[in-house]
Amino acid sequence: MEGVATVVKNAGSHYELSALPAWDLFPAVLRGKVRLERSGATNPVAVGDRVRYETDGPADIEHPAVITEILPRDNYIIRRSTNLSRQSHVIAANLDQAVIVVSLLFPEIKLPFLDRILVTCEVYKVPVLIALNKVDLYREELPEMVAGFRRIYEGAGYPVLEVSARTGEGVNALRERCQGRINLFSGESGAGKSSLIKALDPSLDPKIGKISAAHLQGKHTTSLYEMYRLASGGYVIDTPGLRGFGLVDLEKEEISKYFPEMLREMDNCRFVPCTHTHEPGCAVKAAVDAGRISPERYNSYLGMLEEDQKFR
């Protein structure tokens, strides 16, 4: 018997599938030939992949289905596996939306890290929503910090939604944005992804970790990639907390095209191509000086150019 289903859980060498929108999970393993054909990434199959499978009867732990083919992806999010590694890791595939969960404090946000995720979403055509979590902890004391963050990212063209998994603020609005969609929840370790998923649907039980007081860094609590069905409609994919995000398959001359605010300006540069670093008559640098492009985002861009040199 053959069929087509979506990968909803990746536990290394074992998978769970369901023929979405139905939610009827069954186990599967990967045929060795498929693993060899897709050896460029550390994981040949990602959560969200649509796959073709074979089974002799009802699939169970003793007799799992066999994944025979990975169907073409509409989009995906990929990152370099480890610092200076040439291997890559596909985080998830066939996404309707990436919800990037960030917290300005506890742990303190690293804007270059966020910008690398956003560039990757632009490259692979994944729509983005930035969920600014834990606003109950710092908005009243540091309103200018919240306003500054919104100015940077809304100015770049990204929607920012203020939420609090603890108080429930903004959760209904987030739930509405996730309805009917396959949503990846990703971000730095400790930003509160799993807590926010549980706030969206209290019946779910993603792993929730505590912040390490020594470093104010989140401890990794999610060791596998898993999709959950929301009671309100739609699906969420929980991912391990990330502490690094290396760009993949991106030439340094292309990076600026994936900053929407730079893309709006670069046609006016005097020279083509322009690296937007030292050339005279650079419209991007002029836009930074004029405040149309934030210096924080521009500095992230410069950091990506330097990172690109390290990987070559």
Task: Let me know the number of strands.
Answer: 15
Helix content: 25-40%
Using the CA coordinates, give the radius of gyration. 21 Å
Q: What is the CATH C level class of the largest domain, in words?
A: Alpha Beta
Q: Would you tell me which CATH topology of the largest domain applies?
A: Rossmann fold
Distance between the termini: 47 Å
Quickly give the structural class.
Answer: alpha/beta
Number of domains: 3
What is the count of helical runs? 9
Overall 3D shape: globular
Can you give keywords for this protein?
alpha/beta; Rossmann fold; 5-stranded mixed β-barrel; 3 domains; Ribonucleotide Reductase Protein R1, domain 1; two-stranded antiparallel ribbon; OB fold (Dihydrolipoamide Acetyltransferase, E2P); 312 residues
